[in-house]
Write a structure and sequence with these properties.
The structure is a single chain. By secondary structure, the chain is an alpha+beta fold. Helix content is 32%, strand content 34%. The chain contains 3 helices and 4 strands; from the N terminus they run βαββαβα. A hairpin with a 5-residue loop joins strand 2 and strand 3.
């Protein structure tokens, strides 16, 4: 299984607007093969709301998973000043083995 980390930032003065988008019923649904593992929120040193979400998806569906996540997060990008960055995570032990 692959893990996809999405880090996103929202200006503090846009939190209410972001919550409206987040609570909207019109968001694209994630496909069944994507599972949200966890979601954390903190405040960045710059004073932005910073969130981390980790998703799990089958290795053979990484591209489709990134597309589905992108569709969802692009909706949030309608909030001025919002930005996000998705990353595919690699298990450290597997990475070491690949480099040996």
């Amino acid at each position: 299984m692959a893990h996809i980390l999405v880090t996103n930032w929202t200006p503090q003065n846009k939190v209410r607007e972001m919550l409206k988008v987040y609570m909207s019923k019109d968001k694209p649904a994630y496909p069944d093969f994507i599972k949200k593992i966890n979601h954390w929120i903190t405040i960045s040193p710059e004073g932005r709301i910073k969130a981390y979400a980790v998703y799990e998806c089958p290795d053979d569906k990484i591209i489709d998973g990134l597309k589905a996540i992108g569709k969802r997060y692009t909706l949030y990008a309608t909030v001025e000043g919002y930005k996000y960055y998705p990353e595919v995570l690699i298990d450290a032990q597997e990475a070491i083995q690949n480099f040996l």
